[in-house]
Design a protein that fits this description.
The chain is α/β, with parallel strands linked by helices and 346 residues long. The protein has four helices and 37 strands. The chain has an eleven-stranded parallel β-sheet, with no helix packed on it. The chain has a ten-stranded parallel β-sheet with strand order 7-10-13-16-19-24-27-30-33-36, with no helix packed on it. A hairpin with a 4-residue loop joins β20 and β21. The longest helix has 15 residues. The protein is flat.
């Protein structure tokens, strides 16, 4: 994608990234592309050895890469210890949407008289800012988004179109909320009276720390009594469900379709793969990685990588294995009896 912003040259980029430039630094750059697709005014990157095969034939203006691959690069190079981090920084530098939102309130937006708006706030068409809401400097509220009563959004927050913050939600600085996500909706709380369900009012709140990002169509429920808390620098993918009173520690990352039941605590620097499910009232310590599609039903108190479930196989083989799985308990009892006989206990 080409940027409408001022086009930096390779020397500018090297300075911004702290990279060592090998080659002419005067070439202007308009965008990023893969090694295979990049043209002479685009930068590419090599962060995965699987794509090393594409390096000799690239037509990129320059390639972000590690020093180990410099000799194989046929074009100017930007050498970094971590090319992927360099790519992340450069992507923001060239993002055509970075300056797309100008300060101001669209005529169709509805802003309560007692709402507090910081400097250079942008509020898009049909957005609603309810009573008592407080928006920090340079906050962007996209079209159709709703900021409920008494919400707080820290400076440089960005709400894409059709984001909903229920009442009393607190959002830190530099938070990005993607379209369709709902923050502070009611937790799933009901009491059964023998014939039906009685709703339990959800009286807590939802608090998001600084530098959080929440993907599209994800839900973070408010607490039943205390708050649901998302720590600083937590990254949450699309279609994730976080139930009431869950706590997520700083710098953790949750991939798509993760589901976390109520009152579970997830530590710092944890990673949950796609489709992971965590039962309620668990404790997951710092530094835990759970691989995709795993179901966690007990607390994890030691850092490490955890998995559950089985990989895909032919259906006929899976059916045979499923039958044997049902037989494991009886097989284990028979093995125990045989071991006891062998040891002379029986």
């Amino acid at each position: 994608m080409k940027s409408t912003r001022t086009q930096p040259n390779l020397s500018d980029i090297a300075s911004r990234l702290g990279a060592r430039l090998h080659g002419d630094g005067s070439q202007r750059i308009v965008g990023l592309a893969t090694l295979k697709d990049a043209g002479p005014d685009q930068v590419s990157f090599l962060a995965n050895r699987a794509y090393l095969k594409d390096l000799p034939s690239t037509r990129a203006a320059a390639v972000l890469l590690h020093a180990d691959h410099l000799d194989a690069c046929p074009v100017p190079a930007l050498v970094l210890d971590n090319p992927y981090l360099g790519y992340a920084e450069l992507s923001r530098m060239l993002d055509p949407q970075a300056d797309a939102h100008q300060p101001g309130i669209h005529p169709s937006a509805v802003v309560a008289e007692d709402a507090s708006l910081g400097a250079d706030v942008s509020i898009g068409p049909n957005a609603v800012i309810e009573s008592g809401a407080r928006l920090g400097d340079r906050v962007v509220v996209g079209p159709g988004s709703v900021v409920g009563a008494d919400c707080e959004i820290g400076e440089d927050g960005f709400l894409h179109a059709n984001v909903t913050l229920y009442h009393g939600v607190v959002v830190g600085k530099r938070v990005i909320l993607h379209s369709g996500c709902v923050i502070g909706g009611d937790g799933f709380g009901f009491a059964h009276d023998g014939g039906g369900w009685r709703k339990i009012a959800q009286l807590g709140g939802a608090v998001l720390g600084d530098d959080v990002e929440v993907g599209s169509c994800s839900s973070i429920d408010r607490g039943a009594l205390g708050d649901t808390v998302i720590g600083n620098d937590v990254k949450i993918d699309s279609q994730v469900q976080i139930a009431h009173n869950v706590h997520i520690g700083d710098h953790s990352a949750l991939a798509g379709c993760v589901g976390i039941a109520g009152s579970t605590w997830v530590g710092r620097h944890c990673m949950l793969g796609g489709g992971v499910g965590l039962s309620g009232h668990l404790t997951i310590c710092d530094g835990v990685q759970v691989t995709g599609m795993s179901l966690v039903t007990n607390s994890i108190l030691e850092p490490g990588v955890y998995s559950s479930g089985t990989g895909a196989m032919e259906n006929s083989q899976w059916r045979r294995n499923a039958v044997r799985f049902k037989q494991l308990d009886s097989i284990a009892k028979r093995v125990n009896r045989l071991e006891k006989r062998g040891s002379g206990e029986a």
